[in-house]
Amino acid sequence: MGATYVNAIIRNPSDTSRAWEGRFLVDTGAFDCLAPRAALESIGLEPKGKRAYILGDGSEVNLEFTTADIELMGEVTGTAIIFGEEGVEPLLGVTVLESTGFEVDARGESLRKLPAVLLR
Hints:
By secondary structure, this protein is mainly beta. It has helices spanning 37-42, 94-100, and strands at 5-12, 15-27, 33-36, 49-54, 60-72, 75-84, 91-93, 102-105, 110-113. The protein has a single domain (18-103), classed as Cathepsin D, subunit A, domain 1 (Beta Barrel), CATH 2.40.70.10. The strands form 2 sheets. Strands 1, 2, 3, 4, 5, 6 and 7 form a 7-stranded mixed β-sheet that branches. It has a two-stranded antiparallel ribbon with strand order 8-9. The chain is globular.
């Protein structure tokens, strides 16, 4: 089994004509999404705060985040997006998957639409 990638569009909720599209690594170990700072700033998004995050190696960092709309496979939701450094690989966190009703098909390295969004 390999990595799962999906194309997604981040939109500025104040002006939905301002958008950035990227190829995101689906990371079920992450809650929030992450995108390059320059991409977020190019569509007019600014940091709304800082939050402590624990990295894969166990270290803790404080990173700036914002909120925006994100669209994948025809579904749209609002979510927190971390400002990443230049060249960072965009990540799609589990919060977006859950709120849009997708699950990871690890064998097929793709996303699968659930028949309905879970409320339990």
